[in-house]
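Risk register update: the risk of archive-format incompatibility is retired. Evidence:
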Amino acid sequence: MSNNNNTTCVNISTLLQPEDIFSRRCIWVNGPVIVGAGPSGLAVAADLKRQEVPFIILERANCIASLWQNRTYDRLKLHLPKQFCQLPNLPFPEDFPEYPTKFQFIEYLESYATHFDLRPKFNETVQSAKYDKRWLVVATGENAEKVPEDIFSRRCIWVNGPVIVGAGPSGLAVAADLKRQEVPFIILERANCIASLWQNRTYDRLKLHLPKQFCQLPNLPFPEDFPEYPTKFQFIEYLESYATHFDLRPKFNETVQSAKYDKRFGLWRVQTVLRSELLGYCEFEYICRWLVVATGENAEKVVPEFEGLEDFGGDVLHAGDYKSGERYRGKRILVVGCGNSGMEVSLDLSNHDASPSMVVRSSVHVLPREILGKSTFELGLTMMKWMPVWLVDRTLLVLTRLLLGNTDKYGLKRPKIGPFELKNTAGKTPVLDIGAFSKIKSGKIKIVAGIAKFGRGKVKLVDGRVLEIDSVVLATGYKSNVPSWLKDNDLAEIGIEKDPFPKGWKGEAGLYAVGFTRRGLSGASLDAMSVAHDIANRWKEETKQQIKTVAARHRRCISHF
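Archived output:
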């Protein structure tokens, strides 16, 4: 079979965990399976090859035309003239006699296979072939792992359940709930660890902004001895214990290049690249009924373009690469962005005796993290049980004014829409203050206008002022990377981003999303439970239907005796 044959395969037992999901090594064939490498099988294969249709030939013997080679007497000749015995598209050699001998016919068949570059899978005995109306044809055999890799464009894995993209909190939550309901799945993660955003792209002083009961994942609470607002490291410890508790084993270092729904078969085709020390660079294709997008809204850094930034000369880094203000002692730092990250980075810099100036380009709600000893978020949720959102917002803003004072006075203008309504309609999260605002009032954190352009060691602001600075931290947020790999689909177009919380988790054609409803960890957990419940119901229904079909066939077989 030639290198341009687009058939694909995989040795499941060595590539997939948990291994007990599959009873056999599985090969996806993007074309027909031909059983037998005698004259008939070779003739079919040659004509398919001529029409550029991919295929695989299975042959139980160790050669083509095993009947002719191993089970005929030496003096045998063809009983008919050669013109009636030749295969399609290649005549016998002219110097062959009218009735070729057995050995000449074998020579002709071998030259036929060579001419059309036919490469059967020898020593592979078909034990059974069964048509499954739900899925596709599966060919099995003892030498599945010995197929030459150049036959296939990608190793292919059939997943008897969903493929989950992302091993962050959202992906782990879906997987744990599926595991609890005994639904098989695979988790693909491009990093080398779970929760890579938390482990690799957060600053050291970070704590959860909400009390732990609003951040825990389904079916496993935080340890009782954890504080109300766990640190970054405690949250990572919790996630790792969560993965261990539910025996979740993502496939790390595997990046999804594309995911496309194949309407012909009603299946998703997820193409990935794996980079590892053991296997090197490998490409895979996963075939599945359901695809769960759990990469979240913070997969890629947002890095705006600023005039003159390339000439600045000092350190420029994204908040995702910021760890601690220790290295910035005595430095003048421009922090671009006034969200929760910008506020906390500025606070950390000030606590390490740096001089931060924070760029504020738009209005922002700043609320105290707690009001009268109670979480502001929890207080707002409690009030919304009895009050409309606009009244809850007005009440919180009055209390905030009493506790923090007038934020407009210090350059932090409030939006016209209240904080909870703004979160519900635009997904914009208010800043929960943990000390930065007092630094702003004291002047230790300066508020400055938007950026006009950078120069060598300085920045010019839109109000005309020029600041001498040493470094820049871009607290400019993140964005989803889904549009780069979800082909022929868009989360908004298929309905996932159109539907408001709590319904924005289900799309079309078996596509699901977790963590895109802009409701933080608590919203992601609710999404995860909804997704897992829906997939589990469909998976169990289809499995039940298959069992009924098999039982019915068995009864029909018995009735014949």
